[in-house]
Amino acid sequence: MPQQKDIVRIAIQMPGAYPQLIQLDQKKPLTAVIKEVCDKWNLPGPDNYALQYADGIQTYITESNRLDIKNGSILRLTKAPGRCAEDLYKGIQSSDSGVRCDSLKLLADVSTDITFAQEFISRDGHSLLVKIVEDAHEAPLIMTHTLTAFMELMDHGIVSWENLSSVFIKKIASFVNAKVLDTSIQQVSLAILESMVLSSSSLFNEVKQEITLERLISHLQVTNQQLQTKAMALLMAMLLAGGEADRQELFEFLEKRNLRQYIHKNIIHSSSSVGDEMAHYLYVLQTVRLNHLEARMRTPLDSYNQEQREMLHGLRQAAFETESESNLSNERRRSLCAKEFKKLGFSNNSNPGQDLSRCPPGLLALDTMAYFASRYPDAYSRFVLENSSREDKHECPFARSSIQLTLILCEILRIGELPSETGSDYHPIFFAQDRLLEELFCICIQLLNKTWKEMRATQEDFDKVMQVVREQITRTLSSKPTSLELFKNKVNALNYSEILKLRQTERLHQEETLAPPVLELKERLKPELLELIRQQRLNRLCHGTLFRKISSRRRQDKLWYCRLSPNHKVLHYGDVEEETETPSIEALQEKIPVADIKNVVTGKDCPHMKENKGKQTKEVLDLAFSITYDVEEYSLNFIASSRTDFCLWTDGLNVLLGKEMSSESMRSELEILLSMEIKLRLLDLENVPIPDTAPPIPKPPSNFNFCYDFSQAEQ
């Protein structure tokens, strides 16, 4: 007798017959199960049949994946993959173009299944597709189906891309280079070339020789967003696959063709929204382009380098009108230089190069200061002279502030980091400006001086001021400004008092000195507010979230959706298409009972992170989580699109398991809710009449001598 845990209750369909409800014994060979099903329907030749899922992704059932079958699954009796492969192999060689077209269309659909792909490739079917492409005699629709089927077969990694002939590569490149051709053919051809480029350096060189970059850029200038995205994907693949010289050559070509300006005007500025895939490629382009600054960022100042010394002394000479130094003695000259470098805000005024020895930001800090001094000389002089005329403890040191600000900008823009496979956090402002880092620096160094005055800061407050400035910059950039002018207006509007409100620093500081009755009230309120957060987390899980599958070749077209059932008893999930918004539970074929979930793990403890140990970035590790179920033998692996989604899902799953929520998002929300609730409870409204009309505006004071004019330099 089979054990109960080995039995799965399923339904099996076949066109023209009543479904069979069976209890599938997972210990019984699959061939025996298929024979029993065929016998019930009086079908001869059970070897010619196989089982596959009837809904969703219609994968063939094999001995290796049969344990994935869940109770309530609906399967279909269909042609065995070998028989299907044989029929399609013959169909695509038919003399009837209609039969060829139908066969290739079906082939493109079923080639997503690896079991079928193995059967078809074992018959050398992929070589037949290569020949069809090389001959190029077929109609556009047939050619589209051929290329799509070929791409799906190659995606399984059964056949190496390096086995392809030069004739085939040239033919695919000719489809991309053609000025008049069916866009469907060009889309698939671009995807094929992208896979080639990412697979090996030799194929990258071949593709680079065959592709006309002018034509590739022209594909970005069409209205077809899918064609735009595929063209951008190939460009990014070529940037990532090539060496430093290749990247520099490609960037120079793109700059000459004003690609950055075109993207800003026609893809970012004119579109109401940028698709996830295009957002990823824009993020990659931004990251790779900014990384050309990495070398300067990691190089300290060389005191013996004449050019660097001249740049350093140029800062001093641009700020102060000095007498001719040639007439001064060496001692007098050194004394004058030291005094002026001190006014500039260097810590080591006798040897200012020491301040620039820290890497990062290294020479990049010198570059940004020199750019500010030459590009905006009036603002530079005003900054230096205004602060050098203040008391020592109140002056804002230009050089020290500039070095730290450059480091902050490098960290915010992630200069020196490799592009993440899931990253999509691009800055539209990058595509609106040739020298983003330098121009941002020029705006932010003046912002820093303004914030310093608003905070009435002293030298001891330096780190605190820099923290506020960092937050001003990150909050403004998160609003995705599309121009420098917009960024400048927004970041200057976000003054110190606004930051105080947003951060609620006063609330956090006061909690350390709360009176005992208030602490008691806080503890009494916590359970109620935690329950409110729990319900919000469960509601978010019921709504569901779209997740992205990660592959080794950076292809980003595989999506899946996961959501919790309204009764909080089952997790439903399944693959979806790009344009899907919120699929119904019925559309998600896979499910996991909550009762079967054993644990939630995050980061490097996740199975999919252990499999790729050392290959994932810190960003991906911070967004990864998994649930283990069925005695921890199986796992469902996630990579959240943002830290917010990560916190919502890990909190929600812990609630389902009866565990405590532990995310930073939960703690922040709890503190905000507690603060609001305590303030409301402590309002003394007893016997306080609430007027029906607003109180009258008081008369203005007799003078305004109490106001401080920040526009005037302090004396």
TrEMBL record:
Pfam families: ELMO_ARM, ELMO_CED12, PH_12. Keywords: Apoptosis, Phagocytosis, SH3-binding. Transmembrane segments: none annotated. Signal peptide: none annotated. One of its GO terms (biological process) is apoptotic process. GO terms for molecular function: SH3 domain binding. Residues 539-658 form the PH domain. This is Engulfment and cell motility protein 3. InterPro entries: ARM-like, ARM-type_fold, ELMO_ARM, ELMO_dom, ELMO_domain-containing, PH-like_dom_sf, PH_domain. Residues 307-477 form the ELMO domain. Involved in cytoskeletal rearrangements required for phagocytosis of apoptotic cells and cell motility. Acts in association with DOCK1 and CRK. Was initially proposed to be required in complex with DOCK1 to activate Rac Rho small GTPases. May enhance the guanine nucleotide exchange factor (GEF) activity of DOCK1. SMART domains: PH.
